[in-house]
Amino acid sequence: MIEALNEVERAEALDGLDEWDYDEARDAITRTIVFADFVEAFGFMTQVALIAERANHHPEWKNIWNRVEILLTTHDAGGLSPRDIELAEAIDAIVDDD
């Protein structure tokens, strides 16, 4: 079973995730990304879905036209875990490539 990050680990991880906000109530990280249009947003979500499926770690997210809102937390761990940080970094890499 994967364990949640402790305070020090969380702070160190968040230092490297400038575009993400910490949601203390859910012990999660969130990010909203705005794209040019729906097709671009959906294409991004498809890329993330493939990575998430391989990692067996899936985001909570929603898409409203050109906007994708993402929340990452590890339910089995009861909060933020290394899996969330890894997925956030992969998401950032996709956004940075566009």
UniProtKB/TrEMBL annotation:
<dbReference type="GO" id="GO:0006729">
    <property type="term" value="P:tetrahydrobiopterin biosynthetic process"/>
</dbReference>
<dbReference type="InterPro" id="IPR036428">
    <property type="entry name" value="PCD_sf"/>
</dbReference>
<dbReference type="InterPro" id="IPR001533">
    <property type="entry name" value="Pterin_deHydtase"/>
</dbReference>
<keyword id="KW-0456">Lyase</keyword>
<dbReference type="GO" id="GO:0008124">
    <property type="term" value="F:4-alpha-hydroxytetrahydrobiopterin dehydratase activity"/>
</dbReference>
<comment type="similarity">
    <text>Belongs to the pterin-4-alpha-carbinolamine dehydratase family.</text>
</comment>
<protein>
    <recommendedName>
        <fullName>Putative pterin-4-alpha-carbinolamine dehydratase</fullName>
        <ecNumber>4.2.1.96</ecNumber>
    </recommendedName>
</protein>
<dbReference type="Pfam" id="PF01329">
    <property type="entry name" value="Pterin_4a"/>
</dbReference>
